[in-house]
Amino acid sequence: MPETLLPSPPENGPADLEPEVLALGRELGSQRFSVRAAKRGAHDRAMALVSSDEQLRAALFRLVDVAPACAGNAELAEHLAAYLDAVEDDGLPVALGSRAADSRAFSRVSGQVAATMVRRMASRFIVGESIADAEPVLRRLWRQGTAVTVDLLGEATVTHAEGQAYADRCDEALRMLALASGRWPERPLLEHDSIGAVPRVNLSVKVTALTPLTRAEAPERAREDAAGHLRRLLRRAQEVDGHLHVDMESMDSRELILDLVLDLLDEPEFRAGPSVGLVLQAYLRDSEEMLDKILARTLAAGRELPLTVRLVKGAYWDHETIEAAQNGWVPPVWTEKAESDRCFERLSRRLLDAYPLVRTAIASHNLRSVAHALAYGRRLGLAPGDLEVQVLRGLGDDLQDAVTAAGLRCRTYCPVGDIVAGMAYLVRRLLENTSNASFLASRASGSDLEELLCRP
Amino acid sequence: MSSLSSFRNEALLELRRPHERERLLAALAELDAAATIEVPVIIGGDRRLEPGLDSVDPGNPDRVVAVATVATMTEVDAAVDAATLAACGWAATPAVERAAILARAAGELRNRRYELAALAVRECAKPWAEADADVCEAIDFIEYYAAQAVVLDAGPELVQLPGERNSLHYRPRGVVAVIAPWNFPIAIATGMTVAGLATGNAVCLKPAEQSPGCALAIVEALERAGLPAGAISLLPGEGEVGAALAGHPGVHTIAFTGSGAVGLEILRHAAEPAEGQRHLKRVVAEMGGKNCIIVDADADLDDVVPEVLASAFGFAGQKCSAAARVLVHERVADHFAERLRGALDTLLVGQAESFGTDVPPLIEVSSRERVERVVAAAVADGAAVHRVERVPNGGGYFAAPTVVVGPGPDAAVVREEIFGPVVTVEPVADVAAACDLVDQQAHALTGGLFSRNPRTIAAVARRTPVGNLYVNRGTTGAMVGRQPFGGNRLSGTGTKAGGPDYLLHFVEPVVVTENTVRHGLAP
Is the peptide bond before A274 cis (omega within 30 degrees of 0)? Predict the structure, then answer.
C-alpha cells in the first residue's frame, strides 16, 4: 500500500523549510519582476485597467466571447454597443462609446478596433493556428531553454465525427511535433532527469474532446468510447517517443478520466511506454484521496516509466461553485483560496516524496506555491530537472523566464488552434488574468513580494 | 415574506458520485423484490381494495408495478362528501399548524426519496436524474406552499382611515379536485394537492391511471404526517372518474394538469353550475405546449446543441416544457442541423433504470403510435428526417429520437403536440421572423432563446407570448420558487405553479369593514 511506502508528511510541512521557500521565492520573484519589465506593454496596462472595473471587464469578455460568431465588423460593433449599455456610466467616456458605437460611421471603426483587439489578445495566449504555424514559436522557446506541451483547441465535441476529428488532429500533432522537434538543438535540462529521458514531444489531450458521450452519471459510456481513441494516441506517442498528458476538466468528467487513464496504463501493451501524464486539481476537497488512488494504481501497474502528475489549482472553480449552489450540493472545491493553496503544498510534498514512482510537474503561477515545491524538492535531494514547473503561455511568461533563468526546467502550455475554436479557452485565461487573486492584479495594486510569499 | 426568502430547493442527488448511484440501484432492487403495490380507494381514512387496473413498467409492460382499485361513481360522491365535512375542521386549523403537518409530509417524502425515485423509474420510466428531481420538486412544492400559506393567512394591508377598520382575509374555497398527470407523477400531483391543503381546502386526488403507485405514496406521506382523515381522498381510475369528480357540484376548485382536450372540456363543464350549486367553480389548468427555441446567428452552437438535445429528448420529450421546434437563423442553420443530427446519433435509447440511458421508453403504446404517425407523415412530405438507428426491441414502448429538418409550415410535425422524442429544425431569416412564427401558435408555454446580444434578448423578452422564456439554456427543469411555471394562451389558465401567486387560486378574499365610530368617538 502506498500509505506504508510513502508516509504522509505533517499537515503544514516541515517548519524549517520556510527560509528556503522564501529564499527561492525571492530569487525567482526578483527575476520575474525584472526580466520583462521592459517588455511589458500596453496589453498589461489595459488588463490592469480592465480588472479594476468589473462591469467593463464583463463587457470586454463578452465581446471576446462573441467575436468569432460575428459575421463582420458591423455586427461586432453592434454587440460592443449592446455590452456597453450595461456598463454604468460613472465613466462618461464609456457611455459615449455606447452611443457612438450605434452610429453607422463609428460602428465600422469600433468594429475594426474591437476585431483587432480580440485578435491581438488571442495571439498572446494562442501560439498558432496549426502545428506548422506554431512550430517557430515552439522552437524559439526550446532554444531559449523552455520545454513545451501543446494543447489543440477546438469546438466542443458533440458528435462522434467531431471526436474522431479531434483524435486525428492529435495523432497528426504527435507526428508533426516529432518531426519538428528532431531538428531542435540539444537541451540536456529539458530532456533528462535522474530517471532517464524526458520526451521532447509533449501533447496535452482532453478526453471530453475525444468523445461526445460524457455523462456525469454514466462515466462508463465516455470511458468505453474514448478508450479506443486514446489507445491509438498512446501507440502513436510510443512510436514517436512522445509524452501524452491527459488534461483534467470539470468534476462531471473527473471519475471517467481518472479511471480511463489508470485502466489503460494497466494494459500490458503500454507497460513499457509511452510516457503518460495525469492532472491533479488541488482545489478539489478530495484531491488527497485522488492522489492515494493514483499512487496505489501506479504502484500496482508496475510500468517501466514513471507516471507524470501535473499538479494544478484547477480552472473550473466558478463552474463548480455555481453548479453546486444551483443543485444544493456541497461544493467539490475549497471555497477559500488559502485552502487550495495549502492543499497544493500538501500535494506537492506527497508527490515529490513519491519520486521516482511519479514525476511531478508544478503548474501554478503562484510564486509561493512554486517556491515551496522547489524548496521541498531540494530538501529531498532531487536534482534540478527532477521536477518541472509548468506555466500557461501568455499568462506565466514572467515566471517562465525566471524559472528558466534559474536553471530549472519550465514547460509552457501552448494552445494551438484557430481563434474561433480557442475562444472558450481564451475567456477562461482572461478571467484568471484579471481575477482579484491573480498575480497580475497584485502587481498592479503594488502588493510586495514578501506578501506574495507568505505561508497560506 | 421572510419565511419565503429562506426557502431553498431540496438538494438533488449528486449522481456523479458512484455511491449515490449504487444506493438508487439498491432501492430499485428492493422495489422489484417487493410485492406489487396495491392501490386502494381512500375516503375519509377508509380503504377499499379491489385491484383491477394495472399500472405497468413502460419498458417492460409484462411487469405490473401497481394495481389500482377503480373508484366507483358512488365513491366519487362519498369522497366529495367526506371532503366537504373535513374542509370545515381543516379550514379552522390555524395556518401555522397546517403548515407544520405539511412540513412533516415533506419529511416523509424525504425519508423515502431513494425508494420513490425508484418507483418513478419503474412506474413511468423516468430516468434516474429526472425521477430524483421529481421527488425533490414534490418536497419543494410542499415546503414552498406551506410557508407561503402562513404569509397569506395574515392578509394584505389595506388603506386605513380614522373611524373604520378594514381587513382582508383569504378563506379556503372548500373542496379541491386534483386531476394529475403521469409525467411528473410525484411532483405535480403533490404540488396541486398541497396548494389546496395549505390554504385550508380539502382535496380529492384523482391520479393518472399510469401512475397510481406514486400517488399512493403521496397520500401515505400526508396521512403519516397527521393530516385529518377526509382532508385527502384518493380516487384512482381512468378518465370517467376524473370527469365525475370535476363535474361534481360539491367541488369548488379544479386543479388540472394534462392534455388540452381534457382541459378545455373541464373548463367548459365548470362554467355551467349544476342544479342547486351555489358557487362558481374555478379551474387551474396546465395544458400542452408546442415550444420553440430560437437560435440567433451569434449563438454559441457548442452550448445550443447539447441544450436542444436535452430539452427535446430528455424523458423522451414527454414534458409539457419540452422543445419541439428549433427556429434557427439561416446563417448557421446548416451547420447547426448537421451538428444536431450528429449529436442525435450519440443518444442511447434504453431502459430508464440504466444510468447511461438518454432516452427512455414512452409511457404507453398509443404514444409510440402517435410519434410514428407524425414521423411517417413528415417522411411522406419529403422533409429530411433523421432518426436514431438503434432502438431496443422487445416489449417496451420505445420510439427512435427524431430530428426533422425543414418541414413544411403546415406539416403535422410542426402543428401537433407530439409529446414524444421529435424535434424540428426550421431556418428563419432572423430573430424577428422566428418571433412571428412563435406568435402564430396557439400554445404559449415555454420558449427558448440563444443569443449573445443583450438587445436581442431584451427585444424577445418584450414580445414573447410564452409563460416561461429561457435564455441561453434549455427549456425544461423549472425550479419551485425560482422559475414559477405555467403557460399562456391555450397552454393554460396563466397560473404559475411554484410561484408567489399560485395559492391565490385556491382561496377567496373576504373583506371586513367595521365602523368604529360611536357617538362621535373613535378609538
Answer: yes
Question: For B453, which residue in chain A has the nearest alpha carbon?
Answer: A79
pLDDT band at A120 (very low <50, low <70, confident <90, very high): confident
Establish whether B320 is a catalytic residue: yes
Nearest-CA distance A87 → chain B (Å): 12
Per DSSP, what are the bridge partners of residue B471? B449
Contacts of A212 in chain B (CB under 8 A): 342-343, 346
Report chain B residues whose CB lies below 8 A from the CB of A78. 453, 455
User: Which single residue is written with the C-alpha cell 524526458?
Assistant: A198
Residues 6+ apart with CB under 8 A from A399: A28, A32, A365, A367, A370, A389, A391, A410
Give the number of other Cβ atoms within 10 Å of residue A179's Cβ: 13
Instruction: Tell me the nearest-neighbour CA distance from B470 into chain A, angstroms.
Output: 16
Of chain B, the end-to-end C-alpha distance in Å amounts to: 30
Query: What is the residue type of B137?
Result: E
Nearest CA in chain B to A223: B356
Distance CA B316, CA B348 (A): 11
Average pLDDT over residues B384-397: 94
Interface test with A, best of B16, B332, B450, B482 (most A CBs within 10 A): B16
Is the separation of the CB atoms in B246 and B180 below 8 Å? no
Q: Which CATH number fits domain B291-471: 3.50.50.60, 3.40.309.10, 3.40.50.300, 3.60.20.10?
A: 3.40.309.10
Q: What is the pLDDT of residues A391-408, one digit of tens each?
A: 999 888 999 999 999 999
Label residue A381 left, alpha or beta by phi (over 0 means left) and psi (-120 to 50 means alpha): left
* Residue type at A4 in one-letter notation: T
What are the grid coordinates assigned to A177, written together? 511535433
Cell of B429: 431569416
Give the whole-angstrom CA distance, residue B256 versus residue B246.
Answer: 9
pLDDT at residue A56, as a whole number = 78
CATH class of B31-287+492-510: alpha beta
Phi first, then psi, for residue A414 (nearest 5°) are -115, 105
Whole-prediction pTM = 0.94
Give the span between the Cα atoms of B452 and A423, in whole angstroms. Answer: 14
Q: What is the pLDDT of residues A418-427, one digit of tens each?
A: 876 676 677 7
Contact yes or no for A348/A362 (Cβ under 8 A): yes
Active-site choice (B75, B320, B426, B435): B320
Residues on A contacting B at a C-beta cutoff of 8 Å: 62, 65-66, 69-71, 75, 78-79, 82-83, 85-86, 155-156, 158-162, 212-213, 215-221, 251-252, 255, 327-329, 424
Instruction: Give every CB contact of residue A179 below 8 A, 6+ residues apart in sequence.
Output: none
The span from the CA of B284 to the CA of B179, in Å, is 10
The CATH class for the domain spanning A2-35+128-418 reads: alpha beta
CB-based contact B453 A215, cutoff 8 Å: no
All CATH 3.20.20.220 domain ranges of chain A, comma separated, are: 2-35+128-418
**Domain B31-287+492-510 matches domain B291-471 at the CATH topology level:** no
pLDDT surpasses 80 at B121: yes
Reduced to 3 states (helix: H, G, I; strand: E, B; else coil), residue A71 is: coil
Residue A159 · residue A225 · CB < 8 Å: no
Q: Which residues of chain B make contact with A327, given a CB cutoff of 8 A?
A: 11-12, 14
The domain spans of chain B are 31-287+492-510, 291-471
Residue of chain A with shortest Cα separation from B12: A327
CB B339 to CB A220 under 8 A?
A: no
What's the rounded Cα separation, in Å, for the pair B70 and B55? 12
pLDDT for the residue A420: 62
pLDDT in the model for residue B108: 98
